[in-house]
């Protein structure tokens, strides 16, 4: 049976493939359902993101004239969609986003209040959570740290490209030496570009933070994700995605170059190191 959870990347991929096959064969949902003995409403749900069981999938492929030798391709997609991942069962409201992030080929991240999630250290995230207006429980903090560690593996274990634009005040806020060192180390990776957006470069058209995902499957539209105190939202609607893609390009063009951004990070690390040395001198005097 299909699992009752938001459709992730591979479920959506399979749904689109089945919809394309049905249309290519000139069938309505009513006709497809009648031929394999299921209600047309179920065909509709499958095409909207409900994962079909293996027998229903094979029945649909049969009436859509897919050669048996090609079933395996669709069954593999279904198997990946049905598999449990680290984000399943965590009772997070961003499960679908996490599944999409996991399959992205490129992540463009603009952050105006915090460091990009994939560039945060455990200590940075812990401080953020414990100093929030309504701090989560210790158990929840542990779960968030575990999720961060899983997500950060994308940068090392998957061929994903990260382009991060960070608003300068985020870097001017108190940051640890470990966090700044971590940013510098990440900036050296071939698949990561970090750029600093200064006060002067930050324009009125930029409303806040957002993340833009692109995918290796050309039929999967880019996805924009935002998070605020009310919750998290994502859309693949053409207009907002297009607008924010353009906003990202404009910001990246006017931001400090990756080389200058790295120099700025090194400058901040020197300042923080000097402040720490002075604090130790005062403490021992």
Automatic annotation (TrEMBL):
SMART domains: HTH_XRE. This is DNA-binding XRE family transcriptional regulator. Residues 18-71 form the HTH cro/C1-type domain. It comes from the Bacteria. Gene3D superfamilies: lambda repressor-like DNA-binding domains. Transmembrane segments: none annotated. Keywords: DNA-binding. GO terms for molecular function: DNA binding.
């Amino acid at each position: 049976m299909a699992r009752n959870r938001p459709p992730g990347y591979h479920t959506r991929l399979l749904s689109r493939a089945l919809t394309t096959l049905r249309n290519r064969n000139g069938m309505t949902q009513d006709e497809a359902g009648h031929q394999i003995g299921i209600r047309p409403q179920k065909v509709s749900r499958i095409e909207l993101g409900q994962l079909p069981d293996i027998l229903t999938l094979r029945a649909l492929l049969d009436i859509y004239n897919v050669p048996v030798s090609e079933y395996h391709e669709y069954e593999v997609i279904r198997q990946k969609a049905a598999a449990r991942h680290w984000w399943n069962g965590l009772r997070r409201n961003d499960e679908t986003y996490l599944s999409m992030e996991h399959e992205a080929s490129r992540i463009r991240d603009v952050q105006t209040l915090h460091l990009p999630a994939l560039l945060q250290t455990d200590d940075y995230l812990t401080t953020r959570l414990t100093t929030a207006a309504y701090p989560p429980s210790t158990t929840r903090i542990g779960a968030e740290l575990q999720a961060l560690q899983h997500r950060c593996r994308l940068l090392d274990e998957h061929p994903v490209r990260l382009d991060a634009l960070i608003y300068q005040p985020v870097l001017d806020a108190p940051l640890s030496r470990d966090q700044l060192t971590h940013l510098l180390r990440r900036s050296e990776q071939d698949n990561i570009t970090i750029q600093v957006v200064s006060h002067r470069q930050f324009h009125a058209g930029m409303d806040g933070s957002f993340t833009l995902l692109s995918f290796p499957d050309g039929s999967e539209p880019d996805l924009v994700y935002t998070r605020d105190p009310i919750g998290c939202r994502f859309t693949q609607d053409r207009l907002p995605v297009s607008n924010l893609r353009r906003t990202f390009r404009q910001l990246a063009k006017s931001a400090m170059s990756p080389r200058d951004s790295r120099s700025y990070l090194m400058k901040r690390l020197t300042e923080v190191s000097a402040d720490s040395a002075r604090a130790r001198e005062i403490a021992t005097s």
